[in-house]
Amino acid sequence: MMNKRIHAKYFSRFLNLLPHRLSCHDSTRATIAFFSVSGIDVLDSLDLISEQSKQNIIEWIYGLQVIPKEGNVKCGGFQGCTALNLLDPPENCSTDNYKWGHLAMTYTCIAILVILGDDLSRLDRKAIVDGVKSVQKPDGSFSASIEGNEFDMRFVYCACCICYMINDWGDVDKELMGRYILSSIRYDGGVSQHVENESHGGTTFCALAALQLSDQMHLLTSKQLEKVKRWLLFRQDGGFQGRPNKPIDTCYSFWIGSALKIIDAFELSNFKENREYILSCQDIVVGGFSKWSGTTSDPFHTYFGLCGLSFLREPGLLDVMPSLNISMRAYERLKSIHKVWDLNSQMEVQLNIE
Ligand SMILES: [Zn+2]
After folding, report:
1. 3-class secondary structure, 79
2. How far apart are the CA of 248 and the centre of ligand 1, in A?
3. Cα(219) to centroid(ligand 1), Å
4. Nearest to residue 37, comparing CAs of 20, 19, 56?
5. How far is the CA of 75 from the centre of ligand 1 (A)?
6. How far is the CA of 288 from the centre of ligand 1 (A)?
7. Distance from residue 335's CA to the centre of ligand 1 (Å)
8. What is the CATH number for 179?
9. Interval between CA 140 and ligand 1 midpoint (Å)
10. Is 8:44 a contact under the CB 8 Å cutoff?
11. Domain count of the fold of the chain
12. Coil, strand, or helix at residue 143?
């Protein structure tokens, strides 16, 4: 059985104080907050976070937003922590030039705001979408930030989540991005992190979710869909592995499970074996899930293990929206925010006509 309360408490601890061994992750602290907040949400236990704490988290998140000053319009988005604000900027670099958004942090920060019930009214949506456009590469992929030298499918996915959530694709070239995704499909049917690399479960999820969020699933032929379905289903060996001949790992119950959900083929997997593997990685003393049975749990594998169990309709868990990777309840909240934005812009148009 799954012990819901112990996992919710596990996440709460990460929201209050991070252990020393996680200090090296300080620059990506927003993602740890995301796993904790979204995990507590999937556990349907948001009442464990007091209203005051929710407000404190929302204020902390808005404090991570980079509001570009004139002449530096490419740096919109969110940073992962405030530590950079305390450092002395390098020579010949003003403090403002030293701050820029990071796609993974921007995606997780906006998701946290939605989950905690914020109305997103303080987002600088124009700066965010300009920031996303500024890191799109000539091959259609994205890097994490303006100084980033890695550009691949992970950041294609983050870019799509951001544009979808702020309901604005600005000058992002979706067609070029679609071509990049198609060029990363491999001979075996899976999708690689970057053109010509090996097929991988995480990046196959990123590619399919990006196509769905950008409304471009039609780019896949029925033959490509059949091949990717086969590749994904063959990753099950009890739990799921990320690549052929690799050990199974809890988080792939999400990456592969979610990819199968997006192409409507999850029901073809073995629910019983998947569930048994995830539950075997549960720490029943301190809470959380690990990647392998008997090893130390961490927020990343705890979150994705719970999402994997949610796909298996585990009692007590909220449904998870596969491509955005948040609860369906948070997703519905996001749709209602979009409706308000649509109404406001319609009213603006009407006022302009009058
Ligand atoms: Zn893993």
Report:
1. coil
2. 9
3. 29
4. 56
5. 31
6. 13
7. 30
8. 1.50.10.20
9. 27
10. no
11. 1
12. strand
